[in-house]
Design goal:
Largest sheet: 8 strands, mixed
Strand order of the largest sheet: 1-3-6-7-2-8-12-9
Amino acid sequence: MFVPAGLEGDFPGECTLIMPAISVGNVGQLAIDLIVSTLDMPKIGYFYTDCLVPMVGNNPYATNKENGKELSTNAEVYALPSRKLAVLQIRSPIIRKKSRTFCQQLISWIKQFAFARVILLSSCHAYYRDDQQLFGTPLRHLVTPALQKYVDIVLKELEWKELEKVSSYPGVNSEEQKISIPGGGFTKQLYSECCSEEIQMAVVLKFCSEGDNIPDAFALLNHLNQWLQLVVPSDENSKKWKVPSSWRLLFGSGLPPAIF
């Protein structure tokens, strides 16, 4: 459930919610970091659940010594009422066998706060692509029927590519097809439940591999920005996003000089 940091009235109504899936390369979570840091979004509360691995740490968006002492938890909510925008950042993995419960909690929260639409940023294993997915952009999207009628024209104008369905039984029966998002965590499950619950939701994902996934995060966010216009487009796409201070330790603190 959502626990507000201040007055619950501070939460913007009828806003867009952007959140990440815990997926390959943590691409969605890295993209959320860039959104919060760039737009300087204030924290308005946290999402309390027993479905995530417990975690506490320093403020990942610290800009000075004072706010660097603030603590952060495994699921926090940030918002900009003036932009009708809210963000849920998830920082730890889901406990085994609690994925379905976590999705149900998210659905309940989305309904409670009547979000106008939900955007899930995700990723998928590149090596699982079939022949048709090898062509063109590595970026894909899925839209629930409830949202389709509102964004269909816009997405066609942007020439976005929908995630292709793949054969349920490759080499045996090519007629029976399904949505497959290997490495996407709870992406498919949440998307399916949002379809059933008639929630306006879009999944924006990128095919990628584990490694340095910072470029994937920039690519995913620049793709999303074509639609939502979170920031003014720039010739240098990476320059328009502000990298948070916590990214200095993405690959550890380096080798200690004492070993040499």
